[in-house]
Amino acid sequence: MPKMKTKSSVKKRFKLTATGKVTVQQAGKRHGMIKRSNKFIRKARGTTVLSDQDARIIKKFLPYG
What we know:
Elements: H1 8-13, E1 14-16, E2 22-25, H2 38-43, E3 47-49, H3 52-59
Antiparallel strand pairs: 1-2, 2-3
């Protein structure tokens, strides 16, 4: 059997932690910062952990993750 391929778009956007959770960059920081409050901009720094329902979908595209 050939190896399963990892989706290129998924490997660029998501990472798996050692415990198997999926981390992703916070959304909403690409443009339009002038409209957003300082509180929102602070909270949207760094990464966040996806919910279990969303992580289940992403893990299908990361077969060897």
